[in-house]
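## Example record

The block below lists the input lines for one assembly entry, exactly as stored, with component labels intact.
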Amino acid sequence: MRRFPRRVRDFAASLAGRIALLLMLGIVIASIASLVVADHLRILALQHLQLERVVASTADIADRFVHNPQATQGQLDRRELFGVRNAMPDAVLGDADPRLADMLEQSLGPRSAITVRRITNKCFGDAYVNRNSIAGVKGKLDIVCWQVGFTDARGVRRLVTIDLFALEIPHNGSLDPIYLFLIVLASALVSLWAARLTTVPLRRLTGAAQRFSLSIDPEAIPVTGPGEVRVALETFNLMQQRVRDGFRERTHILAAIAHDLQTPITRLRLRLEHVQDAPLRERLVGDLAAMQALVRDGLDLARSSENREEWSMVDIDSLVTSLVEDHIEMGAPVSLSSQCSVSAWIKPDALTRCLENLISNAIKYGGEARVTCARREGLVEIAVADSGPGIPEERLAEMFEPFVRGETSRSRSTGGTGIGLTIARAQANSFGAVLQLANRPEGGVVARLGFPIHGPDGAA
Amino acid sequence: MTVPSASFSPSGSSASSSSSGGSVLVVDDDPDIRELIIAQLERENFTVRAAGSVGETLAALEDAPADVVVLDLNLPDGDGLNLCRDLRSRGYADAIIMVTARDSAIDRVLGLELGADDYLTKPFEPRELLARVRNLLRRIGGSETSAEALARPRNARFAQIGPWKLDLLLRRLVTGDGRLVMLSSAEYRLLSRMIEAPNQVLGREALSPERKATVAFDRSIDLQISRLRQKLAAEPGGVDLIITVRSEGYVLAANVTYE
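Predicted structure tokens for the full assembly:
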């Protein structure tokens, strides 16, 4: 569980995470803002409705005053009218309401000299004592009143109190925590999905680049997805093709040179049989053999980048023990101390060539080869250790470069061509294995070759 | 490439050249190499002829058979691979060693599948060529008397032993579901000797004729047999494929079929 905060941090630092968080934040803010605005508009509309009713009541009473002033005044005095009374004598008046005044003026005409103010103290609360007689009213019943003064069409100044049931604005349910939670949840889901959608092609491209970095000869990526992605994938495939073509051309040149060298070397080798001076002949044969090894290794190196060997499920122990036993039979100082009892999906000849080079290097430069095989977190790790002088730490990485040796000079005594490790790494890369060199604390160098244990379908 | 219709009888005529080490036809487009190889072989008392092209080869073989043909793959008027296949399809039964500068597994597989008996890569040690020629002469000479060797077709790629297939070309074991189990050179030597004589008791000298019988050697054979046995036992039905016959040797207790 302690890793959880780190995972959140990693997620927030990723492109997908950022897109998702940004989208989610945007969606939540926008939806809450629109809910608040909608609520505000609803309240405004209801208030407007109430004001319109004030206007309607005022217009009605003004109309009555114009048509029948005495009767209307009589009705008011006797409280026979509903919603309109004579001005309340003990009224406490609030601020003027210019909006309502405007509305009233529009209704009663410009010469009506409207004054309108909300009454802030209790008004006519006792007027509806018998509230049980009003259908649909239960509990508290509030009355709100306005004091409206106007001049009617006959030019008489009137002052009345308009009373209305207080408008009970229903509670706004859309800002409930449960709705807010649903909004956040939905936006999170949409955001994650959108982020995934945008990063899937990126991940495909990353995967392809990774495979390309391991092997020069991977499959082209299928060009699918949205337009921009297709263009990117096409470009990537084109680059891959170009690099491969360049490599192939180089390989062909090298292969052609090596091939054509083989005929004169063969002739030379056969002619050497006629050299009478035996020590001279031996030395010449030795020189020729060194030349031949260089040609062969160069050709191997050139070809290793386009290894066409088929993948197979291989019993790793049988491969390692066979190699070690072959060396022991030839009298080489090679030992095997642990096995890993596993089969892996690899290219068997490439692994064999790689290990052969590692073992012969260990013998040549380190006096002996101790081979171990172990399983580590889904990987097979084959290690070849020697007990030689080791390699300065800062020079370990360059040992994989062609024609770089542990010693400063190209020692003839060790008899290597100087590309054994280069070939070993190229062979390893051809089936997705990683080769690393390290100095052992107890002295000598260890070459570690790691590759995944998985079947042909990629499953473990 | 056109091949004149001609039939080749199995030479069997090694008796006629019994005074020498055997008859060899060297086919190579490079005259220098041709002459150098001829000089090399003649020094070892082989009767040697030479050909520089497909046409010359066919003519030379029609003229007189050869026990071994040393065949270069690059010829001016055709491909050695095609020539090899044509010779076989016309019933030429004597040994062919392919020699080529191409060094790739594909050529090796193809060459052996098309009917070559052995394969040598240029540049080669002169002694290596001599050893291969001698080896082949012995194998061919022996096959006329050995019934088991005849059971093994020339271009067989696999030998079926119990649940295992032995890849005769890439020298490794294959399980029924295609998993590969590698063999050391010694293990392959032992197994390939045993499949030539299944269900027969083979002494340690018969299993490894190139070595002298000593106590140390016996022990190393026993060790190799026990490792081989362990590898074979890894598949169901692979246990007890090799049986020890006390103080006599070992038996491969299985029938061997080729494909």
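The two ends of chain B are 29 Å apart (CA to CA). Chain B touches chain A at residues 30, 32-33, 36-37, 40, 101-105, 122-126, 172-173, 177-187, 224, 227, 231, 234 (CB under 8 Å).
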